[in-house]
Structures are given as structure tokens and as C-alpha cells.
Amino acid sequence: MTRPLALAVAALLVAASAVPASASTTEPGDDGTGGLDYPRGGEGPEGSETAFTLQDPGIAESSGIAPSQLHEGVWWTHNDSGPIAPEVYAVNEEGETLATITLAVQLRDWEAITVTEGADGAPAVLVGDIGDNFGGSWPNVSVLRFPEPATLADATVEPEEITLTYADGGRDAESMMVDPRDGRLYVVSKEFSGGVYAAPEELDPAGVNTLERIDSAPLFATDAAFAPDGSRYVIRTYWGANVYDATEGVPGASLGSLELPESDQGESIAFTPDGTALMAGTEGVNAPVWRVPLEERYLSGEPTEAEPEPTQESEADAEADSGGGGALPFILGGVVVAALVIGGIVLLARRG
What's the pTM value of the predicted model, to 2 decimals? Predict the structure, then answer.
């Protein structure tokens, strides 16, 4: 490479590196707005506290949590993926493991869990093998369903495997919820332009069940859950949670967003059995599970002026509405500079 050409390439690299720096997401101000990761994890709403700490060293990547319907004060959780056993754990309010249920299947990428009433009227545990660390390369994902044990003791069960596929192509997802009113299952994809997907009204264990996109979702959703009476649902991200009114079904009107206690990798959310608070967990050995009380506005079902966490679409709309403010001028300027430098490189390359 000639010296002039090398200098031109160096100039291009400098120009390219300068554009992201100028156009980077701004840090939230005192008003708590701005930034793709708003709301950020912090102390959580007033009254947030550590409910318990997971004591079992075998629970190193708790990716979902759900309250038992048969055993008061018991919560179900599971690990994520990797060289780990396909196990589901029942833990008490002290974080102690009361039972380990081994599923006779191959664990691929478990990301969510819920307990809901089965077709026979008895509670069933559903584990969402819906993650895809390869960005949606799996043609199908699945949900594993087995009856909630009446007695908490270690056991091995063979779950019913329900196959799911996306109508618009493969997706990575970590969020799954079931409407307790009609048993309909929903999956929320984990993407910049994430979506809420509805399964068929009746799941067919013998066939392939198609997930249809019905709504947009917050950036990087990591779990979701319905309130016990089905009147509300929540979608969480690494940093916060959005609560929705589900009185008329899904999609529901946003009731606002709240920050969750800061965590290393927050991936689980559930309503408490009385529906007045959220339980939020994170990955890691001896990970804490927080109890986050819900303000009245989330319980009354009345939307407020509070804005939900942004989706990719809302970020773009806000940028467009700002009259050219924010990162857009820097991006356009960077494109112009890059075009000029590239032209110079081509010219120098021809001469030298």
C-alpha cells in the first residue's frame, strides 16, 4: 500500500470511529428519559427488597421464575443452557431447594417457566425451550409441559413436548407467558424490534404450532408473566419492566414502566400470587430474588402519562420528531465525510 493511500485509509478509520462517538446514545438525565436502556436498573421502586437468595449452587443461571399453584410459598426456577442437567427446581421462601425435577429431554436453551391450569383442571408446569443463541437459526422451538407434582420430592418425569414455529421466521426469545383466563400462550422475542407472538388458541402437541406476531415489544425482553387473574401482564428487560392492561386481552394498553433493582443479568419476572408485587431474579450463583411492590396505577388498570421502555420504532419516531436533534446530524455528517474520504482513497489508489 502506498503512503498516500495508507494515510487516506487512516483518515477513513478516524472518521468512522468519530461518528459513533458523536452519535452515541445519550446518558439519561435527572428526568430519567433518554438512552436505549431506559429505565436502568437501580434501587427499584420504594419498598423493593430481597425476598430470598437462591441457596443451591446448582442454580447458576436462573432464567425464569414462577409461583407454585399447589404449594404456598414455593417458586419454580431452572437454569439456562450449556453443559447442565435438564432440571427444574422448587425453592421455598428462604431460597432453599425442596425438590429437583429432572426432565427426560435434551436441554437446548431454557429461558422461561410458568405454572398454569392444564386441560384437566390441574396445574401444569411449562418450561420454554425458546432461546436461540444463534439469532433465530432454529426452525422450531418448544415448550415442555408436565403436571405440577403434588408432593415435592426429587423425581424424573417425561414431559409433553409442544413444538412452536414463527410465522415470520426464527427468533431468539426469552419470554413466555400464559393467560390464566383462556390458557393461551404468548412468546416475546428478544430483539431491537422485538415482538409479542401469540400461539394458537389450542396447542396441538402432535403438530407444529405457529406463532403470529400481534404487537411490538420493549428492547431486549428477557421474561414476561401474567397477573394471577389475567388482568395485567408484564414484560421485563435487563433494566426495567413494562406493565400492560390485559382487560381486553393481548395486546393491552401500557400502564407505564418501572425500574427493577440493579442486577448482573436480570432474566426472570413473575407476579406474586396476590398480584400486588413482582418477583424479579437474575443469573448467577447465590443470586437474589427481589420483591418489587406495584404502585396503585399498575393495580387499578388506569394508564398514566408515564412512558414505557422504548422499542426500536419509538426510538426512530422520537429521533424524527426532534427536528434533526440527537444523533441524526452526526450520522449524516459522518456519512458525507466517509463518502469524501472513500472517494479520495479511490483517486489515490488509481494514481499510486
Answer: 0.76
